[in-house]
Design a protein that fits this description.
The complex is a heterodimer of chains A (367) and B (304).
Chain A (H helix, E strand, L loop, with lengths): L9 H26 L21 E12 L2 E7 L14 E5 L5 E5 L9 E7 L10 H7 L6 E8 L11 E6 L3 H13 L4 E7 L8 H8 L5 E5 H4 L4 H6 L6 E5 L2 H9 L6 E5 L13 E5 L4 E5 L5 H8 L16 E6 L2 E2 L7 H6 E3 L4 E2 L3 E4 L2
Parallel strand pairs in A: 7-8, 7-10, 8-9, 10-11, 12-18
Antiparallel strand pairs in A: 1-2, 1-6, 2-5, 3-4, 3-6, 12-13, 14-16, 14-18, 15-17
Chain B lengths: L39 H28 L6 H22 L1 H7 L5 H14 L9 H30 L1 H5 L4 H16 L3 H9 L3 H29 L10 H10 L5 H12 L11 H10 L1 H13 L1
Helix pairs in contact in B: 1-2, 1-4, 1-5, 1-9, 2-8, 5-7, 5-8, 5-9, 7-12
Classes of the chains: A alpha/beta (367), B mainly alpha (304).
């Protein structure tokens, strides 16, 4: 701005003061906005946004190979420059198959490899109750196909401080156990594995498992066509006290393990199909602690429907377990989670009442 | 309630549609930082949506959960229930873009943490005595949401028709996110306004909350665009100026200034009803072809 003369004039001095003040204000504002984009609003101490529960990833099927009779192993790769989210043994991925079906598969690769995930799938025919997911993995996910995944999440975590580890795997149930065995073996822990299947040819990763067991006799392999059904009780009977027992396999195997669990040992189960197909829906009752009421949930209805009869203003929306509106705190009772949304932390003390149910006879909700 | 039924603005019945949330999912690895090639300003001006919507739409759901018991009309209750699920999914879908921006060197947290404060604290539940003060604050927020939804429908309609974005080769995943969201905003454009009319409907409150919402949106948007332009690692001395906005509007990569100004008197008109704006048929047509929405449909059928 050209300075007017003479400098003594009052108007010029006023203009100078105003311009100077404006420039200073602008500089001060810019500095503040630079440091705090919505100045003068403060920031929330613990930001909520920008930390989604899970992120969808599109991965490339880089390898599709047969590793046993009826079992294929997929190697899924991401973009080379971006490391994939990490995982711990026992974790699984949600695969969104081309038809839209979502299926969970345990990760059986190396957790330190951040460039790819490895899963293995056994083909389950319609005669065995298969609903088409595994067939799609076997037939549609050829090398070069892109597939969307969510996760990884861990519903079957390996506890780190057990005195000893006893694993029981049935057939394709070896997948989460394999990553666990590698981890405990590398850590030098005391472990044993009972690996059973229909025939040696149908049991994936057999060679690797036997090698890990080595001469120490840690691994017992029982193929039904050679030596009949495994004696789970006898195997668990030899378990050291206060150990951790991990079982993944068909229902019958898990029931046998639960019955034969030695005293002082903790039991950890991984079901093949945690969601819709997990047996029939049993009846149970739900106590609404704050309202002081109790409702019965029959086999053919949902917790949401039963609770809404008592509390008609209760919010819900999708009724399929994905929108999260009907998440409520659970004060007591064991939950049968059937959604694909909640994180493991959220699952510990809350549930989506539109799809999830009780494992036991009773739940207490904070409602 | 301060009005009579006869004076209520009449909705266009044929524009009503049953609402349902869609279980969409987007993966962002292949989306570039400037998803509208060669146009960082338009990219970032639209990106401001990802800064505001995760917290904003979460807040809608939070407020509407409290209003649900006050609704005395079954049809409206159904609409609000559908609305809640759609908004919850919008919030999540935009939230998943934020880590992707961070990975590309543009960390949105300084801005989003302040937006979180705005919606969680300033506009959150306040320690008010029960009765009238608490009711007043709830009604004020319901009216604010109705005013904001006027603009989300405006933007939804714009993006469904923004052919210039296709011509310039915008990233298909981002375009699908914006159009899926825009189409659902058009689908449910009447719900927030109908709810406001049902529980309060006062004209003075409508004007007051419109002024607050409009002022806040202008403030948040210009700060957001400046924030992105200033922190974009690929730009030196990135700026966002009003004349860039005006120019992008004329080019068709953003809404025009004129259309924005013309939308103001429409909301303030006494016989405004959202069903007279936008086209439900167009929204439904887009959703029938949207990759994310059709995948969600397949998922719903696969799970059933």
């Amino acid at each position: 701005m050209p300075l007017p003369r003479p400098l003594g004039s009052r108007a010029a001095r006023a203009a100078l003061v105003v311009t100077g003040a404006a420039l200073l204000t602008r500089r001060a504002l810019r500095r503040r906005i630079g440091a705090s984009p919505l100045w003068p609003l403060p920031a929330l101490a613990e930001p909520v946004s920008g930390q989604p529960r899970t992120r969808a990833l599109r991965l490339l099927v880089a390898r599709h190979e047969r590793v046993a009779d009826g079992v294929v192993q997929l190697r899924l790769e991401g973009v080379p420059s971006v490391p994939l989210p990490g995982w711990e043994p026992g974790a699984h991925l949600d695969l969104v198959l081309p038809s839209g079906l979502v299926r969970q598969y345990s990760l059986c690769g190396d957790p330190d490899d951040t460039s790819s995930y490895t899963v293995a799938t056994r083909l389950i025919g319609a005669d065995e109750g298969g609903r088409g997911g595994s067939r799609e993995v076997h037939e549609a996910l050829a090398e070069g196909v892109e597939v969307e995944v969510r996760g990884p999440r861990n519903r079957f975590p390996l506890i780190g401080d057990a005195a000893s580890y006893t694993f029981v795997a049935g057939g394709i149930g070896i997948t989460p156990v394999l990553a666990m065995v590698r981890a405990v073996d590398a850590a030098g822990a005391d472990w044993r594995l009972l690996y059973c299947g229909r025939s040696r040819a149908a049991m994936p990763f057999l060679e690797e498992v036997e090698k890990l067991g080595g001469a120490a006799g840690r691994v017992r392999v029982v193929a039904e066509d050679e030596s009949g059904r495994p004696d789970v009780a006898a195997f668990l009977g030899e378990a050291a006290p206060a150990g951790a027992v991990y079982v993944c396999g068909p229902e019958g195997l898990m029931d046998a393990a639960a019955r034969a669990l030695p005293e002082g040992c903790s039991l950890h189960l991984e079901r093949f199909a945690p969601a819709a197909s997990a047996g029939g829906d049993s009846a149970f009752e739900v106590e609404l602690r704050r309202s002081g009421r109790t409702v019965a949930v029959g086999p053919g209805t949902t917790v949401l429907a039963a609770v809404r009869a008592e509390l008609p203003g209760l919010a819900y929306s999708c009724e399929q377990g994905f929108c999260g509106t009907c998440q409520h705190r659970v004060l007591e009772g064991e939950i049968d989670h059937r959604d694909e949304l909640l994180t493991d932390g959220e699952r510990a003390d809350s549930m989506l009442i539109c799809v999830s149910r009780a494992l036991g006879p009773r739940l207490v909700l904070d409602l | 309630m301060s009005h009579t039924r006869a004076r209520l603005p009449q909705p266009v019945a044929s524009e009503h549609i049953a609402l349902k949330a869609r279980d969409v999912s987007f993966s962002w690895e292949s989306t570039p930082l400037h998803w509208l090639p060669g146009d960082p300003f338009s990219t970032h001006t639209i990106n401001v949506l990802h800064l505001l919507l995760p917290a904003g739409e979460r807040w809608f759901v939070h407020v509407y959960k409290q209003v649900l018991p006050l609704i005395r009309d079954e049809q409206l209750r159904e609409d609000v229930i559908g609305f809640i699920g759609q908004e919850a999914m919008h919030s999540r879908a935009h939230d998943e873009v934020l880590p992707h921006l961070r990975e590309q060197g543009l960390d949105p947290t300084p801005y989003t943490a302040q937006v979180d404060w705005l919606f969680e604290k300033l506009l959150g539940d306040r320690t008010l005595p029960p009765g009238r003060p608490r009711q007043w604050w709830l009604m004020e927020r319901v009216a604010l949401i109705a005013a904001i939804e006027h603009y989300t429908a405006f933007l939804g309609d714009w993006v469904l028709n923004a052919e210039e974005l296709d011509r310039r080769g915008a990233d298909p995943t981002m375009l699908d996110l914006l159009r899926w969201h825009g189409a659902e905003e058009v689908e449910h454009r009447s719900v927030a306004f109908d709810l406001f009319l049902h529980v309060d409907g006062g004209y003075r409150r409508r004007v007051r909350t419109w002024a607050t919402a409009f002022g806040a949106l202008v403030f948040l948007w210009q700060r957001g665009a400046r924030f992105f332009m200033a922190n974009d690692p690929t730009l030196t001395d990135g700026k966002a100026r009003f004349r860039d906005f005006h120019r992008a509007g004329r080019a068709g990569t953003l809404p025009t200034t004129g259309a924005m100004i013309r939308s103001i008197p429409r909301y303030l008109s006494r016989d405004y009803h959202p069903s007279r704006e936008c086209s439900t048929a167009q929204a439904v047509a887009y959703l029938a072809s949207s990759p994310a929405a059709t995948a969600a449909e397949a998922r719903a059928n696969g799970a059933a």
